Amino acid sequence: MLSSVMPLHEVNPIATCFSQAACSYDSAAHLQREVGQQLLQLCPSALAVQHWLDLGCGTGYFSQQLAQRYPQAQGCGVDIAQGMLQHAQRLRPYASYLCADAQALPLVSNSVDLIFSSMALQWCDDFAAVLAEAKRVLKPNGIIAFTSVAEGTLYELKHSWQAVDNQPHINQFRRFADYQRLCEASGLKVVHLRCQTLQQHFSSVRELSQNLKQLGAHHVQTGRNNGLTSRQQYMKLSQAYEQQRQPQGLPVTWQMVYAVLQAV
Ligand SMILES: C[S@@+](CC[C@H](N)C(=O)[O-])C[C@H]1O[C@@H](n2cnc3c(N)ncnc32)[C@H](O)[C@@H]1O
To answer: Could you identify the atom of ligand 1 that is nearest to the CA of residue 130?
Structure first.
């Protein structure tokens, strides 16, 4: 299935953030676990799987689940962050692991039955390229099942930062309508596509920031320096966020996209 294994040097700042978070990721990934489990349930049980990919596999938690679900199949976890892959390899040697970008897969065409991808594809600027690569590597009737994050995610944090300065502190996530449009245009059959609002609660802004950092999800893609927050900025941010406090704590909204597409 693999045409080559080309290790990337981490000039990619997204990869660097995720690599640095490899050791803390699992203990912080509560929402990510729930979302990935839901995605596993959307993967058709009748699908005959010889080769699967876990695209944006991170620490390999779902690669392990896929290996258990399809014990006869060959599996491969793919990620852009070397640190994540080293961690996955050490902790979960149930699959082979490949360092590659979902937008340009070093895999031969027509070789994969199932692509599973949970909470990774929002980091890809060119989502049409991701879908084109999926279509290329999938066998006829093969499936890509993914979750991703849409606009509206972390809006409370975004809104609170607006009280501090005009810098972009939160990534600009694709609109759900754009996911719909790109999936419809991909040449893959859209079997399932929906957006669900999920909410988490944190006791403080510091706890939320720490959680995002432990996940490696704190890199901001749009031309802002990803520098430290001063004490004064933090106080202002915290005051603004407190206006939104609920009985359970400070709310954090996620707009989660769930999709299953099939190669025809
Ligand atoms: C939030 S983690 C999700 C990990 C795992 N799928 C899970 O659900 O626990 C996102 C992962 O996507 C990877 N990623 C980001 N951009 C990528 C890209 N262009 N190609 C492949 N992986 C990418 C990151 O390195 C990171 O490990």
So the answer is: 19
- CB atoms inside a 10 Å sphere around CB 128: 15
Give the mean model confidence (pLDDT) for residues 238-252.
98
Nearest CA to ligand 1 atom 19: 101
Cβ of residue 36 lying under 6 Å from some atom of ligand 1: yes
Ligand 1 binding pocket includes 77 (Cβ within 6 Å): no
pLDDT digits (tens, 9 = 90+) for 104-119: 999 999 999 999 999 9
Tell me, using a 6 A CB cutoff, whether residue 101 lines ligand 1: yes
Fold of 13-150+171-199+256-262: Rossmann fold (3.40.50)
The model's pLDDT over 24-50, given as tens digits with 9 standing for 90+, comes to: 999 999 999 999 999 999 998 889 999
Quickly tell me which residue has 């694709």 as its tokens.
Answer: 174
